[in-house]
Amino acid sequence: MTITTAVAGRASRRSLAAAALMLPASGAFAYTAVTDIDYQTAGIVPPAAPHTLYESGDGDVRLNGGLSLYGFAAATDDVNFGSGSSIDAGAPTGSSPDWLEAVVQPALTAEWDVDDAGTWFTGVQGSYAATRGSRYGDAAGATPNHPEHGRLDRAYLGWRSGSLWADTLGEDAVTLSGGRQKFQFGEGFLVGDGFTDTGKYAGYYIGPSEGFENTAVASLDSQGWHGDLFHLEADQYVRGGPDTETKANGINVDYTFGERAKVGAAYLRVYDSDTATRDGMDVYNLRAKAKPFTAVPNLSLGGQFVLEKNDDEGIDDSGWYVQATYDFVDLPWTPQLAYRHAEFEANYDTLFYDFAGGWGNWFMGEIVGEYMLFNSNLDIDMVRLSVAPRDDLEAGVIGYHFRYHDREAAGVSDSDFANEINLYADWSITERLSLSAIYAFASPETGAEERFGGNDDDAQLIELYATYTF
Description:
By secondary structure, the protein is mostly beta strands. It is built from 5 helices and 21 strands. Strand 12 and strand 13 (281-290) form a beta hairpin. The longest helix has 8 residues, at 14-21. It is globular. The model is unreliable at 1-10 and 17-29 (pLDDT under 50).
């Protein structure tokens, strides 16, 4: 995989900030895992606009606004194990780039309740990002030459059914929407981020823009069921341009069994794409998670499977993971222990995968998963231990072992790629301000040394990420 393709799926860190800022009334930190039943809600995702700017006397018309600020800083040592270029020499990186990113995002949303006719809603969100520091921009070399860029990230119109079918289907059972907006399902493992913040668009790590270039979504929520019929159009930055487009139609279905289990399935047809391997691809997704044992209520299990088929390109590849999570609720600091095994075949395409609000989801490894290998031709074992020493603080350690799924496809003689350790802390300083700090260390193995021309230095980085929402 070249760096152009690899960074195409770069997803947003803003979901982590949202998780940290949307605290319950007690102020406790959101302490969850992807195996939790309500980890993420499928469907369209509006921008953050917490402040009421106008409300009519009868309450039927509402206008809200918000302003979000994001900042990121990284210091690195021996990027790509000292090679000074990306994994396939697609871009120079420098041996130890340090860089800064900043993002400003204003947002407006509006709603209009119509008597016996549901609710109309709309929203707009702008995004302005800048990258400074290293001339290469970041450790993947994806945002060189100090870019900065503004974009209209969201601009959509929609309708919710309100009380129209409340007696049969439930309140707000039907939602129709279209335009430029964020859409997700399945914890963002396959679909969650519709725009690539690379190259001239700046903000590689923060990844501020998430709205698909164009969408049409019809959703149903009723009696434990959630369904989406969707049309998605996404841009993909290509170094040297022009940008490429991918268009897909699909269906997603979830069913939730109370607080015990959730199952889902999706199908996408990529009917038009400037990327040959995507054009004409059929994508099938199955997923499930549950607390299966009443005698062990703190154990949750989950997993997903994705199959991608494109006969014209000879692609019949899959990606999947299984995870077990256990919460030690009776111990001090309520530790949470998770183990995940994931496998991605050589031609697996991450499509529109997202950073889904927790470290390791789905960019596994702050060094390898962020800047080297991007969930293709890769097998990963992950162990994660988290603690909550205070209501506003979570800290943890994550260990990864990376192996090539197919060493011949990677052009190496040994499948073992690297081992990595991440130490992190997430602090919700106030209801509006959050700060995350990460230290990562990665040690190459034979497969990495071969891919990087014999370079075998240990890679390190320190990252700080802050967000403030007005």
